[in-house]
Write a structure and sequence with these properties.
The structure holds 2 protein chains of 2 kinds. By secondary structure, chain A is of the alpha/beta class. Helix content of chain A is about 30%, strand content about 15%. Chain B has a single domain, classed as Aconitase, domain 4 (Alpha-Beta Barrel), CATH 3.20.19.10. Chain B has helices at about 15-20, 30-35, 45, 70-75, 90-95, 105-110, 140-150, 155-160; strands at about 1-10, 55, 80-85, 100-105, 115-120, 125-130, 135. In chain B, α7 (about 140-150) packs across α8 (about 155-160). Chains A and B meet through α2, α3 and α5 of A and α4, α5 and α8 of B.
């Protein structure tokens, strides 16, 4: 019987080499274990409290202070200081200070720290992003991280896989965000609980790497353990010149076992918008057209990559942000920021009356840089629209891709990009 | 045997509700407990008694990986969380830090807010004293039971290292 790409990667990181869905890997060995300024402090405390003094392998440890940085208050500064001190003490090479920092899940692929075939754990739920490169990557907690610091291992149950086959050419303005919102809208926020979501089909094969990362990024929003796309020429082209280690390209066998399969013709779907307060409330944008908004955020680990910023800039160019709307644009990394400057995109946003920020997770989780007041409504290219996610418990978040976000910032209300053309 | 009152919640209780991100600039368990379930029920922490149970529907603890969520619940002295199902990162975090969690669709469906609950974790039996009913908990896989028995993941790996 054949194996899925997920089974192959996990098996390759254990001693047994023959693991199947449902099997328990007591001590899988991750290539990379990642934590941030919210999750690493708990991990560091657990590690030290348990009496461990040495990291099993500092080369696998990645620390990215991205959530509340540049430090939003004294308490956040203390947490960031804890990471910094820990990184220095243990010789952690992959520590990214403000100025070199980016949003972790955009930064790691871009910097070639994660490569195809890797097993990655991250104390951040959106760690599932790296499946876009053909890596198995999954979110864990801080104690998992502490244990991995000490032992170099993690416990994992090998997940069953669900196959999502996408076919059909995408309409204008429809991209990775719309594919994943559409999928979550179909299967629900627990539709893939504990499962690996394997995305495939002709549409995925055409999808650029940035959009693939957006798709895999939100696997967790369907309850998935991971999202994954078999690597191909697009993957190879992306990792060339970036990869810091030798990639391994795994594929699912033709007779691999899937617990479910979905087949979506996406040639007819519109840009999607997820209504409060769950990502599964996805609708075609036409159904919510006219909904007034107070703020638009373009950025995050979901949609803060250069192609997202470019798509938004094309729509914003030569227009003005609506006077009742605050548009906040946050490039995910320094490289994206620099490219935005060099390509003249920052000028487009500033001329339109938008704020353009240094990289941070910031408003996505209601941290800083764009918190909502009571009764305010935000359209964001981020990943969660839970109650109070971006601020006041009585504020609302709508989720969409960069094209709808940019057009809506101009219109002052949610619109299809065609409506402002 | 644990005894306490049920505090009932719905499906898809997410970690932003359990502990909003605005409080994640600390790791202090007591401070986190003070804001437990705040955006879902601002009076929860005022009303909850040590030993009470959180009872919820499907997908409890969905969303972020923040371990602050089970820490806040444990530190608010909740005896255990009983749910129809758990989101996976919350599930492993709870096991890793020694917060008792119980998967039982029957119990989660049947128990109402305010019901008096008894839980025998070892036997996997939930008793509803108010309704005079019993429910079975889904047993943990052996490998996870080992971590639970050790009192959490760090204790487990310390034992392994010896």
């Amino acid at each position: 019987m054949g194996m899925t790409i997920t089974e192959k990667i996990i098996a390759a990181h254990t001693e047994s080499k023959q693991l199947r869905a449902g099997d328990f890997a007591k001590a899988a060995r991750p290539d990379i274990c990642l934590a941030n300024d919210i999750t690493a402090p708990v991990a560091i405390e657990e590690f030290e409290k348990a009496g461990f003094e040495k990291l099993h392998d500092p080369g696998t440890v990645v620390l990215v202070p991205d959530h509340f940085t540049p430090n939003k208050d004294i308490k956040s500064a203390q947490q960031a200081a804890l990471l910094r001190t820990f990184a220095r003490k243990h010789g952690v090479e992959h520590y990214f200070e403000v100025g070199r920092m980016g949003i972790e899940h955009a930064l790691l692929p871009e910097a070639g720290i994660v490569v195809p075939g890797d097993l990655v754990i991250g104390a951040d739920s959106h760690t599932c992003t790296y499946g876009a490169l053909g890596a198995f990557s999954t979110g864990v907690g801080s104690t998992d991280m502490a244990a991995c610091y000490a032992t170099g291992t993690v416990w994992l149950r090998v997940p069953e896989s669900i196959k999502f086959v996408f076919h059909g050419d995408l309409r204008k303005y429809v991209s990775g965000k719309d594919l994943i919102l559409y999928t979550i809208g179909r299967i629900g926020v627990d539709g893939a609980l504990y499962k690996a979501m394997e995305f495939t089909g002709p549409t995925i094969r055409q999808l650029p790497m940035d959009a693939r990362q957006t798709v895999c990024n939100m696997a967790i929003e369907a309850g998935g353990k991971s999202g994954i796309i078999e690597p191909d020429d697009i993957t190879r082209e992306y990792v060339e010149g970036r990869a810091r280690r030798t990639p391994t390209f795994y594929n699912s066998d033709p007779d691999a076992q899937y617990c479910r399969e979905y087949d979506y013709d996406v040639s007819k779907i519109s840009p999607q918008v997820a209504l409060p307060h769950l990502p599964e409330n996805a609708r075609p944008v036409e159904e919510v057209s006219g909904t007034k908004i107070d703020q638009v955020v373009i950025g995050s680990c979901t949609n803060g990559r250069i192609s997202d910023i470019r798509q938004a800039a094309r729509i914003i160019s030569g227009r003005q942000v609506h006077r009742d709307v605050r548009l906040i644009v946050i490039p995910a990394t320094q490289e994206v920021y620099k490219a935005s400057i060099e390509e003249g995109l920052v000028t487009i946003f500033i001329d339109a009356g938008a704020a353009f920020s240094t990289p941070t997770c910031g408003p996505c989780l209601g941290g800083h840089m764009g918190i909502l007041a009571e009764g305010e409504r935000c359209l964001a290219t981020t990943n969660r629209n839970f109650v109070g996610r971006m601020g006041h418990p009585k504020s609302e978040v709508y989720l969409a891709g960069p094209a709808v976000a940019a057009a809506s910032a101009i219109a002052g209300k949610i619109v299809h990009p065609d409506e402002i053309a | 045997m644990m005894e306490g009152t049920a505090r009932k919640f719905g499906d898809d209780v997410n970690t932003d509700e359990i502990i909003p991100a605005r409080y994640l600039n600390t790791t202090d368990p007591d401070e986190l407990a003070g804001h437990c379930m705040e955006d879902s029920d601002p009076d929860f922490i005022k009303n909850v008694q040590p030993g009470d149970f959180i009872v919820a529907g499907e997908n409890f603890g969905c969303g972020s990986s923040r371990e602050h969520a089970p820490i806040a619940i444990k530190s608010a002295k909740i005896a255990a969380v009983i749910a129809k199902s758990f989101a996976r990162i919350f599930y492993r975090n709870a096991i890793n830090i020694g917060l008792p969690i119980v998967e039982s669709a029957d119990a989660a469906q049947d128990i109402d807010d305010g019901d008096k609950i008894k839980l025998d974790l070892t036997a996997g039996i939930i008793e509803n004293a108010t309704k005079g009913k019993q429910y079975k908990a889904l047993p943990f896989p052996e490998e996870m039971q080992e971590i639970i028995n050790a009192g959490g993941l760090m204790e487990f790996i310390k034992k392994q290292a010896k």
